[in-house]
Design brief:
mainly beta, Arylesterase, 4-stranded antiparallel beta sheet, Neuraminidase, hydrolase, single chain, 397 residues, 4 helices
């Protein structure tokens, strides 16, 4: 049989171009909406917003939670995250240089001017050594009324952990309660506590869900995992047994997590989705068994970050990066002072109706790299935190 003519349509030399081109088109189609490719950012609802700042180390406050006191929020700030971003694997420390450890803050955002105060952590926990918090949450024991702040700690030179502190709001003191460290908690990002007293340890430490945002802990594979490998997961720490149990596998950059004792919401950053799961708790020989069942999901035109659930309205507040590509470039630049600031966005998902809407868009000039949005219904405020900006953004609703 005679060979096909050289201009035959499926000649290998053409497929050598067609296959890569098809892959690029597929990538842009899948990630274009999340990366914000070609999207023009226009400010929306920022006229009532004010950025509150204070001491020089009150910046890069990635997560924020409401307290049980009206108008008061708690936040953690990692003021040298620009030098060492463990989640994304960007390190700019000089040889022998060590990043400063981080702190907890109490912010009364309804006072004028806002009151910004740093917590003192008791000497049982050396917060000056290698403490670099990320996701945080607040819990009140329904039996003892003990108030607890729990935080992810992405230690730079050791294993990650979840740290628990009891809160004395009047004296601005945190007392270290417990460290949870496990080989299965290797890239923790966000945590969600189960409030049920039946799932607490004898000392009151609660059980909790957590996200591992990556499977790989460093290197090239960690970077490409963001877009191509569904390897991140949700785990469950059973405080009754002291063991970590399986939650959900096969997620793409699992990030923020929120919910109640009945259901859980999980953010997949570069998929642009929030997924809802029912939590099923059963008891076998008085030991709790927890399972998650997928319910539904919602898509957002941004790289979604942290989540907060508003039970009174059945809303999930979603903060993120509407131009994900700009946020990635900004993270890779050492000189962030003179770099172009990526925009911020906060959306909400009405879970019952399935509708989503945008609450806030800022082009980056006022507030960049938004990570968490909180709705305070009592004071009609929106509180926004950031990966790489000063303080917090406070807006009227």
């Amino acid at each position: 049989m005679a060979p096909p003519p050289k201009d035959y349509w499926f000649h290998l030399k053409y497929w050598a171009l067609i296959i890569p081109a098809a892959y690029v088109v597929s990538f842009i189609y899948s990630f274009g909406p999340v990366m914000g490719i070609g999207r023009k950012m226009v400010d929306y609802n920022v006229d009532t917003c004010e950025k509150i700042s204070g001491p020089t180390d009150f910046n890069f406050c990635e997560d924020v939670v409401l307290s049980n006191v009206s108008g008061v929020a708690y936040t953690t700030c990692d003021p040298e995250r620009h030098l060492f971003n463990k989640v994304m694997g960007h390190h700019f420390l000089e040889e022998g240089q060590k990043a400063k450890s981080s702190d907890f803050w109490r912010v009364n955002y309804v006072e004028v001017p806002a009151s910004i105060e740093k917590f003192t952590i008791n000497k049982e926990f050396d917060s000056t050594s290698d403490f670099h918090p990320l996701g945080i949450t607040f819990d009140i024991n329904p039996e003892t009324n003990e108030q607890i702040l729990a935080s992810v700690n992405l230690a730079h030179y050791g294993d990650a952990s979840i740290e628990f502190f009891t809160v004395d709001d009047e004296s601005l003191t945190l007392t270290h309660k417990r460290t949870v460290r496990d080989a299965k908690i290797y890239n923790p990002n966000s945590i969600h506590i189960i409030n049920d007293v039946r799932l607490r340890a004898d000392d009151g430490t609660p059980s909790f869900f957590f996200t591992n945002d990556h499977y790989f802990t460093s290197g090239f594979l960690k970077k490409i995992e963001n877009y191509f490998l569904y390897l991140s997961n949700v785990g469950f720490y059973n405080a009754r047994t002291g063991k970590v149990e399986k939650g959900i596998n096969g997620l793409l950059f699992a990030n923020g997590i929120t919910g109640t004792d009945e259901f859980l919401f999980v953010a997949e950053t570069y998929a642009g989705t929030i997924k809802k799961y029912d939590i099923q708790i059963t008891f076998v020989d008085d030991v709790p068994q927890v399972n998650l069942n997928y319910v539904k999901e919602a898509f957002f035109y941004m790289a979604v970050d942290n989540l907060r659930y508003v039970a009174e309205k059945d809303l999930v507040v979603v903060a993120g990066h509407p131009k994900g590509i700009d946020a990635l470039i900004f993270m890779m630049v050492k000189d962030k002072v003179n770099a172009v600031k990526p925009p911020s966005q906060v959306d909400v998902w009405d879970v019952e109706s399935g509708e989503t809407k945008t609450l806030l868009v800022d082009n980056g000039e006022l507030f960049t790299t938004s990570t968490t949005g909180l709705i305070d219904l009592v004071n009609s405020k929106l509180i926004v935190s950031s990966l790489f900006d000063e303080g917090l953004l406070i807006c009227d609703l």
